[in-house]
Specification:
By secondary structure, the protein is of the alpha+beta class. The protein is built from 7 helices and 10 strands. Helix 4 runs antiparallel to helix 5.
């Protein structure tokens, strides 16, 4: 925001008609509401319409984690600009007019998009942030192939004085980011995703196999078929 923009206020935003509303796909996902605020368009990530048990637990945890990650990532090019936490279960970022990689999956994507995405990941890792759950929908690409990363709700922040266990977990999640990146790139390019993971080395390939077995088991518990 600039000095000419009014301060963000949740009650004030509630009094406006949003330009756009993207509803969370289930009861644990936030709604995204887009507003005009001074010279900016902002994206309000808001859990207030979720059930009370979500608001009192998952939503508070996710909002707190995402706020912490955005604050550490402040100033990193390619990360959505954080505008503040607005209450226990709401936060705001600058809205970016782009399309997600998921929307571009059937189109030819400029190779520079993946180079830029990997640069963003490297800067986040250097700052002590691992995304841990990178998806096509988290990567926005504008008409000039500029990349913006959004949704840091599951990001893990290393902290200033991490102990050995936290440091080990961070390294594992950085590896998971690398796995997610090569799989995402292979998916868009219509290449072999498993081969892309193997190219990272034996440790990454083993970790990926374990994650897949865990996912299959969890899906069976939930009654999902493969």
């Amino acid at each position: 925001m600039t000095l000419d923009d009014p301060p963000l206020d949740l009650d004030q935003l509630d009094g406006q008609q949003p330009l756009r509303r993207i509803r969370g796909r289930n009861n644990t996902k936030a709604d995204i509401l887009v507003y005009r605020h001074g010279a900016l368009q902002i994206a309000l990530k808001d859990y207030r319409r979720r059930p009370w048990w979500v608001r009192m637990s998952i939503a508070r945890l996710m909002t707190r984690r995402e706020t912490a990650a955005y604050r550490v990532a402040r100033g990193i090019p390619g990360v959505a600009r954080f505008l503040g936490r607005l209450g226990p279960v709401s936060l705001a970022t600058e809205w970016v007019e782009s399309r997600s990689l998921g929307e571009l999956r059937e189109q030819a994507v400029d190779p520079r998009v993946f180079e830029r995405l990997h640069e963003i990941l490297e800067r986040l890792h250097a700052a002590g942030i691992a995304l841990s759950d990178l998806h096509l929908s988290d990567v926005l690409v504008d008409a000039d192939n500029h990349v913006t990363l959004v949704d840091l709700a599951t990001a893990f922040t290393l902290g200033e004085r991490p102990g050995p266990l936290r440091s080990r977990l961070f390294r594992r999640l950085v590896m998971q980011d690398e796995i997610s990146f090569v799989r995402l790139r292979a998916h868009i390019r219509k290449e072999d995703a498993d081969a892309a993971v193997r190219s990272l080395g034996a440790e990454a390939a083993t970790a990926h196999r374990r994650n897949r077995r865990l996912k299959v088991w969890l899906d069976r518990v939930r009654g999902r078929q493969h």
